């Protein structure tokens, strides 16, 4: 059906594509290396890599600039899983043996609610247009966004519409922020594992790199939970970058975290903001899963409940196809500079109209959408986590987002990314698509992200296929009681 | 109403903003110069400039990168006219003494037709979505675009859907093409006067510059019409760029031309393509006004009727707020590289659905929309051109597009851009917004672009205000019979 590979807006990297951990210096093929070396500033990000080096070399085109070749290379070498998936998508009626997608972080549970929402449809070529079909969303939409964020982020004072910038998605926000905050070759800190596509978002147009703050599953005396971010780790990563001559201009946080599902406490958030202030770093907090915290006891707090900072926040209805992302920042220079790029990340007037209508419908959101959405997310989570427990598989979740971070390390004969990749491919061969840890820059081979925000029949079939693959392995789970879950702070069975 | 300045997608520069002709080297203020000098490759385009240098200096922000400051500076210093306009927009009932906008190249004549088109509205959160809410428009939309372009561009063979890339507007297409075809600091050739916003489109993200092929109104032995582009002029501009060490990678053509309203004959087009082939240049042909040729005898030919080349073509329903631009290229490397950037220039699934529906409705387009649109454009043109003739004002038009290129040189006491600016400001003070030649890099002071694609009562009032300003000047038009029009090759009275 598709001749050019199609991309998902969330979780685009399920397999070790260019956002993966292999060191590109030894791995990206001569053609690309040669292209890159032509412009000293336009270095490849140190964390991209993987894919097929020979394919990389052949992607160099005399028609393209060096950065054009890199952009094409990212595309060509990424997302083997999604290409396979799109050629063989599961359909209950038409293709029941097709691939179940547990890799894309999209909320498939509530499309019916959104479809049934009472609404006034605009006359498509008329009413939505308004007197000024500006590229930048009009002020009334920004007013709606400000009201919406004030309410759901529990800001101490009402947020100001003039601090709101609306673009066509979070990818564009990261791209624009990287460009206006950094010179080519400068960097942002980011705790890893992280949503791997951010590597491309800051790099493809901006030429900006990510410096990873690597987290691991080991629980030390200082750390109270696996993969916990600490100021000490931030300081060490920054020092390392400084030592290597990489200028760091900002810190990216994702809260609730993707893929960990972790949630930062207000105290932790304050510590990270203090660290950033100390080192004069911009802080960008991606709160795209803010409204998908389905465990009330998880204790989620938006950074906007603390104080205003540069931050991209994306209103979250799990509709990646809608293309809607908002930035709230009290730094007017940054707001203006990002808004200046809005003609390249413009939102259709039709979508502006629809979103303003939706955001305004507080009654429906509060009394219909959110309660039902959270109940469905929780039910899906309960089912999948129960299946994992029955298999004796440890996992992490705090009751937020669409995914569980699953520890399949014991299914790898050796703790290598090669073995992780082989396991990932066995899942795909058995018609279930997952995302492996390497795609999120996880340093420990064997972790997978499993998306559960899907209808029961697909979830059930997907988990059955996961189980088949794992049970076909000779290693039998040693102790089902060892399930490690952090859902709402409780160990669940 | 608007706190951040709003931008128009077409004709964004009515006044001498940063896309203007003044040499920035002597004019852009110390702050910006300092920023730019930090990155030798990230030079300001030589043709931008203007605005208030002191304002420029103050736009340098310690929070922004050097390119971020430049991006913000473009925004801050541009579009005085649009800011004034948006604060005081004409409204027949609410603000009858407000500003009439004859500066934005938008077709305000046919919104009623588009509103009344029989259509099936999708269930907004349902049907349009489809199984894969990909960022890149789905294949069926690309099939529709290919069929549409094959028909209206009269291509010798059917165009292929896999060569179609769809992004959220022409601005994004230029930005993406500049990035994937050029290194930072490289350049495209473009005949001037040209739609000034292209300067920003290729520069803001791509760091690519434009090398002007300056045209003038003088009719020489070789040139058969004012502002005619010749291969000789292309060769000279390319030689000059080479001499100055600027690497030129492509040629941008706009056909029908904006702001000249000129149309290239098939023979001329072939000559330009031959020139480009000889020098290994990419050719990008912007055909955004292709369906707005309202004089059949104008003899318009799309470049796709000749042969396939890299070219951004934007389907034109004069709906700048819709955000829809298409690229057709037979160079697969270029198509893939541009498509790789589509997550930053993504189109809402809702707009994809609407556009596919619209493009498919060939019967309505052919028998309702286009005949009526052309009739209305012609009527509006006939009125405005008649008014200009009555005033004895020479102008150029070939019966295409939404505007007339008007020669007001005789109203300038001196042939300077300062006087052009003063005249432009007198129009604005008298509540009518026009675009002056400087915004299009015209080398001759005194030319203005006047948009006529508006409802009769606004046009009438706008022309009345134009007349008031011109008649207030002491110079009385010397000979009403001297009107120079190229409408369909005929001199009209």
TrEMBL record, chains A, B:
GO terms for molecular function: identical protein binding; pyridoxal phosphate binding; transaminase activity. Residues 1-37 are annotated as: Disordered. This is 1-aminocyclopropane-1-carboxylate synthase homolog (inactive). Keywords: Pyridoxal phosphate. It comes from Panthera tigris altaica. CDD domains: AAT_like. GO terms for biological process: amino acid metabolic process. Residues 25-37 have a biased composition (Basic and acidic residues). InterPro entries: Aminotransferase_I/II_large, Ethylene_sulfur-biosynth, PyrdxlP-dep_Trfase, PyrdxlP-dep_Trfase_major, PyrdxlP-dep_Trfase_small.
